[in-house]
Amino acid sequence: MRISSIGYVGVSFFFVLSGFILVYTYAGRDTSPKEFWRARVARIYPAYLFSLLVTAPFFIYGSLFLKVPLFEWASAHFKLVLVLVPLLLQAWMPLAALAWNAVAWSLSDEAVFYIGFPFLLKRILRLGAGGLALVAAGCWILSVGITSLYTLANPDRLQVMDADVVNAFWLNTVKFHPLVRLPEFLLGMACGAIFLKSKQDRRLALPLVLGGIAMCGAVAANAERLPYPVLHTSLLAPAFAAIIYGFALAPRWASVLSFRPCEFLGDASYSLYLLHSMMVWPFFYTQFNEPRHRTYGGIFAYLLLAVSVSGLVYRFIEEPARRKLRGKKKESALPTLSERPKQDAWA
After folding, report:
1. Per-residue pLDDT, 307
2. Residues 6 or more apart from 221 whose CB is under 8 A from it?
3. I need a surface site. Which of 94, 97, 106, 251 has the fewest CB within 10 A?
4. How many CA atoms are closer than 13 Å to the CA of 87, on its beta-carbon side?
5. Does residue 169 carry a pLDDT above 70?
């Protein structure tokens, strides 16, 4: 089983990382909910809106003229989709989650997480390390329990549960609904708070990162034997939390990530995520998802084009719009250990 065949688990990594970084960044700061929400809108919406404009022709054409499962619901509810997606509400209606720009459903979930974060942060930071560990474990058990229950009950009466099923109401619910994916974000928040409340021992970094990678490798190797809904939603969340925690310890061997080219690629990764599937992908894949170019040269050309376009969008659209909306200089998403909030400021 190739790692690329379960690439969808990367969204779980994104949710855990988001919760971790937001706690790491905002703990100890006197930031009002209004200021936080403004910063989040400035962070995600300009590139999101641009992705909708770019993918609109393909979405409109597919909804009106292509008789394929991916566009079936959008075709029948076209006007509703035009309202839900720009307002980041598509994931609340499971069959609309993949409409317009399919990967953008995760931003619909993140919008919910952002709304609740200022209030959740106060409660998370009141807990001790033991309570936070229980929260993290409980969130993972709850999430795996929901997807396991779906797998056993099979309310959609599916013969096969896999990524090709796009119009099953309850499967889409456990995959995309914000309240089902909230535990992964809370797990990340709990781990971020544990990090800030704990002694920073860089010797733990390598075991945590390698352990997390080993867990990911073991799951990938056995992915065909695992229930698809469980694998899709949060099964690997603890492994991702371990990797994130390890890198947050800032070991010397991870200093390569602070090089300017790596930082730029990280900055542009959000635009890459939003744009890769509908804007760049059709140049290299057929409508049946078969690669047009099977050579390493073709793969390299795709990666080069995708990264180049994303870098340009970040440099000339995403970042200028963010600065204008925030009205101040961009702050680092992940401060160094010396810059993070003092523990006694809030613990």
Report:
1. 86
2. 1
3. 251
4. 10
5. yes
Q: Which of helix, strand or coil describes residue 285?
A: strand
Distance (Å, rounded) from C-alpha 131 to C-alpha 124? 9
**CA-to-CA distance for 91 and 79, rounded, in angstroms?**
16
Structure confidence at residue 343 (pLDDT): 37
250: left (phi over 0), alpha (psi -120 to 50) or beta: left
This prediction has a pTM of: 0.89
With helix as H, strand as E and coil as C, how does 113-155 read? Answer: HHHHHHHHHHHHHCCCHHHHHHHHHHHHHHHHHHHHHHHHHCC
What total number of domains does the chain contain?
Answer: 1
Helix or strand (DSSP H, E) at 320: helix 319-326
Q: Which tokens go with 165? A: 């099923």
CA nearest neighbour of 219 among 16, 20, 9? 9
- Domain contains 338: no
Residue 303 within a domain: no
**Coil, strand, or helix at residue 299?**
helix
- pLDDT per position as a tens digit, 22-62: 999 999 899 999 999 999 999 999 999 999 999 999 899 99
Q: By residue range, what is the domain housing residue 89?
A: 3-249
The answer to whether residue 344 is domain-embedded is no
For the four alpha carbons of 237, 235, 187 and 107, in that order, the dihedral sign comes to: positive
Do residues 100 and 52 make contact, with C-beta atoms less than 8 angstroms apart?
A: yes
Identify whether 262 is part of a domain.
no
CB of 293 within 8 A of CB of 285?
no
Residue in the block written with tokens 């065949």: 5
Neighbours of 332 (CB within 10 A): 9
> 50 and 317 in contact (C-beta within 8 Å)?
yes
pLDDT in tens, 56-115: 998 999 999 988 888 999 999 999 999 999 999 999 999 999 999 999 999 999 999 999
Taken as a whole, the chain contains a residue count of 347
**In Å, what is the CA distance from 140 to each residue of 187, 206, 269?**
7, 23, 26
**Helices 296-313/260-275 angle, 10° precision:** 90
